[in-house]
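Colleagues,

Please find the record for the two-part complex below.
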Amino acid sequence: MIKLKEIPTKAPKGLEKEDIKRKTDRMARRIGHLQHIMYAEKKHNFLVVFQGMDASGKDGATRKVFAYCNPTGIKAFPFRKPTEEEFAHDFLWRINKQVPAKGMIQVFIRSHYEDVLIQRVHKWIDEETVNDRITAINEWEKHLERDNDTTILKFYMHISPERQKEKLQERIDDPGKQWKHNDADWKEADLWKEYMSAYEDAINRSDVPWIVTPVDQRWYRDYFIAEQVLKEMEALQMKLPTFATLKPKD
Amino acid sequence: MIKLKEIPTKAPKGLEKEDIKRKTDRMARRIGHLQHIMYAEKKHNFLVVFQGMDASGKDGATRKVFAYCNPTGIKAFPFRKPTEEEFAHDFLWRINKQVPAKGMIQVFIRSHYEDVLIQRVHKWIDEETVNDRITAINEWEKHLERDNDTTILKFYMHISPERQKEKLQERIDDPGKQWKHNDADWKEADLWKEYMSAYEDAINRSDVPWIVTPVDQRWYRDYFIAEQVLKEMEALQMKLPTFATLKPKD
C-alpha cells in the first residue's frame, strides 16, 4: 500500500541538473533507436500512460522522452471530455480504439483512469460503479498484456500542490503559456484532497503497478521517466529481423 | 506540363553535404517550434503527402524533417493495401479518416494517389475510373483547403531507377535492412515506365501542385523537403494565442 503523502515530489538531493539533462538526452536517443527496432520487429508494443493533475507535465514529458522517435512508430493521444457518442458506450470503448498495434508506442495523455478519478471526485458515479470500473480496468490491462504483447507503463505524475499553483499561475502571467490556461483547472485544484485520495486508491488497487513519478522539476521528471521506459525496452531484447528470422510477407 | 525525365533526381552540383545537413537540422528545429504554435493556435493544419516508388525515402524524410515535433501534434500514417472493409467503400473513405484536425500535422506515407497509380498500372481499373478518381481527388483536396484550413503539400519522391535498385539491393545485403525487403517491390520496379507515365499524368492533372523532389541523396532530399515545409509554415504567420486573442473555453 502506497501513501502518496510519503512519496517525494522533488528530485533527490545532490543531483547535478546539467549532468542529468545530458543523461536524459542520451537515454532518449537510445529509446529512439530501440523504437526503430520495435517497429521493424512488429512483435512487442508499448502503452505509456501519463496521468496526473493539471500542469503536472504530461505533454512536456511526452516531448522529451520520445524526442528521437520516428512519428511513424509513435502515437500520442490526449483524452479529453468524452463526446456524446462516447458517453453512450461503456467507458473503455473509446480507450480501446487507441491501443497500440504491434510494433508501436502509444502514449496516453490522461487515460481510462479519468473514469475513476474526476468522475469519482465529483460523485458523478457511485462507489459500486467505481469498483466495477476498477475490476474492468484490471481485466482489460491484463488482456492487453497477455493477448497483444503490450508492455504497460503507467506514470502517476506526482506534483506538489504548491508547484501546481506556480505552474497554473505561469499560464496566466506568461503570454507564451496563456493558451494553456483554463479556469476549470483552478476549480479542480480546489478538490486536491479528494483527488489525492482517489488517485491513491486507484494506484493501490491496480494490478499493473503504477510508477509514482516526482515531477516538481522538469529535468528530473524527464530523467526518471526515460530511465523507466528505457529499462523496459531493453528488457525485451529486441532484434532487427533478418532473412533468418523473418516470416514471409504476403 | 512537367516531364519527369527532364527533372533531376540528384542534388545540384557544388553543395557541401555537411553544410546542408547542418542547415536541415536548423530548419527542422524551427519546424518543431512552429508546430508547437500550430498546435496551440488550433487554426491551421498541414497535410504532407510523401508519394513515390519503393525505397524512395518516404519514411526517412518523415523522421528527419519532423524530428523536433511533439508526438502529440503530429501523426504519420502509412497507407498499405486496403482491407476488405475499405475496398467495400469508395477509395477516399479510408483516406478521409486520417485527415489532420485543426492544429495538427498529418503525414501520409503513400496516399490516395495509390488509387490512380498502382491500380492504373496493373489495369485493375479502367481509364474512365481513373478520370473520375482524379476529379474526385481534386475536389476533395479543394474541400480540405477551403473547409478545414488545411495546407496540402504533396511531395513526389523523384528517384532514379538506378538508385532505387541500389537501395532495394541494400535491403538484401545489409542485415539491418532486411526487414524492409519485399520481393513484390522488385516486380513493381519492372513496371518503371508504366509507373512514370502514371505519375506524370497524375502530377500534371492535379490542381494542388506537386513538389517534385530529388531524392537520390538522402541529405539533399531532407534539406529540400524541410525548406518547402518551413516556407509554408512561416507563411501562415502563426502566433501563440494570448488572453487577448483566445476564444473562451468550455
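Chain A has a mean pLDDT of 96.

Comments are welcome before we finalize the supplementary table.
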